[in-house]
Structures are given as structure tokens and as C-alpha cells.
Design goal:
The complex is a heterodimer of chains A (about 120) and B (about 120). In chain A, about 0% of the residues lie in helices and about 55% in strands. Chain A has about 120 residues and is mainly beta. Chain B is mostly beta strands and about 120 residues long. Chain B is about 0% helix and about 50% strand. Chain B is built from no helices and 11 strands. In chain B, the strands form 2 sheets. In chain B, strands 2, 4, 5, 6, 9, 10 and 11 form a 7-stranded mixed β-sheet that branches. In chain B, strands 1-3-8-7 form a 4-stranded antiparallel β-sheet, with no helix packed on it. Classes of the chains: A mainly beta (about 120), B mainly beta (about 120). Chains A and B meet through β4, β9 and β10 of A and β4, β5 and β10 of B.
């Protein structure tokens, strides 16, 4: 079983502050690293998928970086807003020759933005 | 837009009952997945399917079975529900093709079914 770790487990951030959290994953047989946002009572929503070492992706105030050699990814949120409150999941896909495997998820970082 | 639907948002069943959780996707995706989500444990893969009538065990298949008779529908079956199967169940789907590096396969999720077994 692949090990995907996220830290911290939960985070309280004041509205307007910036924050970041970490996902670590196996560095061998790497294929892709996904970030999802999961709001209460909704489906997990894909934020980013990254495949190349050094990839950086940005969507509005949220961005992510990828280091496949050392096996970690950071998610950054700039100027946090209440609507950013959610659980952020990262998921790792290993390359298995004939096709990619299913996703292996971390336990998530539960982010609460305090007004 | 990809749409993945699940038959129920909330379900309450008794111990020992046979439970069916249904998932339907409308994007002609080859792959379908069932996960469960528990506090402190994250999303864990139960079963997945790469094609009609094909199934593969995930990380925690014990106590579950699946059925994929049609491409768009993937059912999770609890043969005899137990209290430790109380959980949030999520279905997902994705396309399947021989991947080129840089073309990862995105999974699309349904809204989840919160199952309580009493």
C-alpha cells in the first residue's frame, strides 16, 4: 500500500492571511499528483493535477508546486477567504506500465477560515 | 460537464441486511471506483473496474463486492452489513487510455452516500 501523508491534519487561519500545507508521496514510479478540494455536502472538486518535477499550477489565489525527486507537493492559499474552508486532499498515482493505477489519497488537511 | 450520480445521499440499514449502493456516470468513462471515507483515515479504495464485467480489488475489499453489468453503472454491494461499514461512500469515474507522460487521468466524483448501519 502506497503511503501519502498530508500535514497538518487541520488548520485554523484568519481571514486575509495566507497559508500552505504539504503532501508527501513515494518518489518512485511517480505518474501524477492531484489536489482536490472537498467542501461539506459537495463532491470533491479537482484543483490541480501535476506530472512533471518542478511543475507549478495556479488557479486564482490557490497555487501548487511539485517536487517528484524528493516526493512532496505544497498547496498555497493567498489571502484566505471563508469560502476556502474545506478539506484539501492530495492523491498520488503510480505508473504501472500498461496504465496508471487508481488514486491513493492522503488523509486530507481540514482548513477553517475564521472571519 | 461530467456527471456522477449516486442513488442515495443518506441511507440507514440494519446489521445483516444486504445493501446496494448505485453509481451512474454519463461520460462514457471506462473506469469506475468506489471509495469510503472515515474520519482520520481519508479516502480508501474499495474496488474499481476498468471495463464492463471487470473488477479489481482495492485496498479494503473485505466485506464488499461489486457489479458492473453496464458501462455507465457500478454497484457496490454489502452482502451482510455490519456496524463497521458505517461510513461515507464515494463513487468516481475516469477515462482509460494508455497514458503519455503529462496526460494524467482525472477522476470525477459523485456527491457521496452516507451509510449508517445500526
Amino acid at each position: 500500500i502506497l503511503n501519502v501523508e498530508q500535514s497538518p491534519q487541520s488548520l485554523h487561519v484568519q481571514e486575509g492571511d495566507s497559508t500552505n500545507f504539504t503532501c508527501s508521496f513515494p518518489s518512485s514510479n511517480f505518474y501524477a499528483l492531484h489536489w482536490y478540494r472537498w467542501e461539506t455536502a459537495k463532491s470533491p472538486e479537482a484543483l490541480f493535477v501535476m506530472t512533471l518535477n518542478g511543475d507549478e499550477k495556479k488557479k486564482g489565489r490557490i497555487s501548487a508546486t511539485l517536487n517528484t525527486k524528493e516526493g512532496y507537493s505544497y498547496l498555497y492559499i493567498k489571502g484566505s477567504q471563508p469560502e476556502d474552508s474545506a478539506t484539501y486532499l492530495c492523491a498520488f498515482t503510480a505508473y504501472s506500465g500498461g496504465g496508471a493505477d487508481g488514486l491513493t489519497f492522503g488523509k486530507g488537511t481540514h482548513l477553517i477560515i475564521q472571519p | 460537464d461530467v456527471k456522477v450520480t449516486q442513488s442515495s445521499r443518506y441511507l440507514v440499514k440494519r446489521t445483516g441486511e444486504k445493501v446496494f449502493l448505485e453509481c451512474v456516470q454519463d461520460m462514457d468513462h471506462e473506469n469506475m471506483f468506489w471509495y469510503r471515507q472515515d474520519p482520520g483515515l481519508g479516502l480508501r479504495l474499495i474496488y474499481f473496474s476498468y471495463d464492463v464485467k471487470m473488477k479489481e480489488k482495492g485496498d479494503i475489499p473485505e466485506g464488499y463486492s461489486v457489479s458492473r453489468e453496464k458501462k455507465e453503472r457500478f454497484s457496490l454491494i454489502l452482502e451482510s452489513a455490519s456496524t463497521n461499514q458505517t461510513s461515507m461512500y464515494l463513487c468516481a469515474s475516469s477515462t482509460h487510455h494508455l497514458p503519455l507522460l503529462g496526460t494524467p487521468i482525472e477522476q470525477y466524483f459523485g456527491p457521496g452516500t452516507r451509510l449508517t448501519v445500526t
